[in-house]
Description:
- 2 copies of one chain form a homodimer.
- The first copy, chain A, contains 11 helices and 2 strands.
- Chain A is mainly alpha-helical.
- Chain A has 2 domains: 11-76, Orthogonal Bundle (Arc Repressor Mutant, subunit A); 82-235, GntR ligand-binding domain-like (Four Helix Bundle (Hemerythrin (Met), subunit A), Up-down Bundle), CATH 1.20.120.
- Chain A has a two-stranded antiparallel ribbon.
- In chain A, a hairpin with a 5-residue loop joins strand 1 and strand 2.
- In chain A, helix 6 (127-141) runs antiparallel to helix 7.
- The longest helix of chain A has 32 residues, at 214-245.
- The N and C termini of chain A lie far apart (48 Å).
- The model of chain A is unreliable at 246-251 (pLDDT under 50).
- At the A-B interface, helix 1, helix 3, helix 4, helix 5 and helix 8 of A face helix 1, helix 3, helix 4, helix 5 and helix 8 of B.
- Chain A binds a DNA duplex through helix 3.
Amino acid sequence: MKTELESDRDYSQQIAQTIRDAIVAGDLPVDGRLPSEAELAARFNVSRPTVREALKRLAAQNLIRTQRGATGGAFVNRLSFEQAQEHMVTTATLLLSMNRVDFETAVEARFALERACLPLACTRRTPSHLASLRAEIARQATAGLTDEEFCASDVAFHRALVEAAGNPVLSWHMAGAVEAMQPLMNMITYTARSRAQIVALHARLTYALAEGGLEDCYATMDALAAYTLELGGEIRARRQAKGRAGQGADP
Amino acid sequence: MKTELESDRDYSQQIAQTIRDAIVAGDLPVDGRLPSEAELAARFNVSRPTVREALKRLAAQNLIRTQRGATGGAFVNRLSFEQAQEHMVTTATLLLSMNRVDFETAVEARFALERACLPLACTRRTPSHLASLRAEIARQATAGLTDEEFCASDVAFHRALVEAAGNPVLSWHMAGAVEAMQPLMNMITYTARSRAQIVALHARLTYALAEGGLEDCYATMDALAAYTLELGGEIRARRQAKGRAGQGADP
DNA sequence: TAGCCTGATATGTCTGACATATAGGATTCG
DNA sequence: CGAATCCTATATGTCAGACATATCAGGCTA
């Protein structure tokens, strides 16, 4: 591992980059222990706080974990799909909100990706997957649900659908796409009528998945996408109204 | 913003979490300036190094940038698609390598997702997109390319293909899926014959995109996926051989 | 008016110290 | 002899104060 640092850039950033590269390259094995902060400080010829800042950067990316005590130190993390999903969701959420991504664009991407899971889900779905789907449908049909609860169950339904494809890499990608949409979906006000429509489509999708009609799966997914866009129309209208009244349209 | 901290957990982590929540919730506007380190230290009742560690955590996630000088400080970053893509690629790469994801699983996910871009790409591709695709094909056909160069061009081709779908959210997702595969693809040894085969499929895909045959696009993509799996077969064989000779099979 | 200079303010870094968690060995008691 | 307890070494977590350095703003000078 290189220990020389350029003098005109942040030391802590360079150190973090050096260690990160070592981890990515596989030079540091998973669960391996990094040298102690004092030793790293000596090796890079910087002070301990500087090393600590570098380590905190890595910790923020879930690349290492730290442990206090005699046998403590910084250890290389096995990046789990779960952790990565969490991270991906917050990143995706921020991306959508900070870049003022249209509802339409986000919905288009999300359903395009979800559509890609259908062929695999059709051949691999197990009874357990179908049970999860039906459980969420039942939940969505219960009366008295707030919009947020309905929306959360909707997300759970789609996550279960993605899980049915049986590919963890795919699931990871989709988690970001689906969950990041939740804040946008939460802006929708679900009437009893629209809920019934969505539940019906979910049920039809589940049926198609169970009884084996890929074409029907596609058609239902497309219908769901179209209906979501329709529901989202009011958001666009509201936003434009607000934009006109307030700070003007986007440049 | 809350300023009370639990005494039994890392202060720097709690502070980072507090500020992150504020950013995600939109309480801190993009390009807005955070209080100075000294002020944050006073507000949270901790020392400046502790605040700095918290800020470094946020900087590592591209949530803030810092600037020295009189008008300097920490500013909320507009999370750009580019930055997020970079981040996503390293995360995806680590996920694949650290979790020993099969070549098959990764390829399956990648082509499933890429397949999802085809309908959009078919209707939206511009002459400029097609030119990019053809440029990469030409590059791939040149003699004397190293395997890595060929592989890089392959990635560029697929990125251009995804771009043709004209959806930035989709592009962001796909960048992670496609680029993270590069280390795995680099393990393939491309013979002249396999290169010719790939170039031919790329050309056919580009033609289908240009002349408007979505079905042909799908078919070609599937052929490409199948051929990639075929090429990857040797990797699996090599890995199994190494596994048997060395540390044994996975538990 | 144009250019330079200086001070204020902020981050980047260093030094040294203390607090605290933890494992493992030494000690003591049943 | 065994088990519970204490002690100590080592590591991270935190603090305080200081200096170095980058940068802008405003005043000063030619």
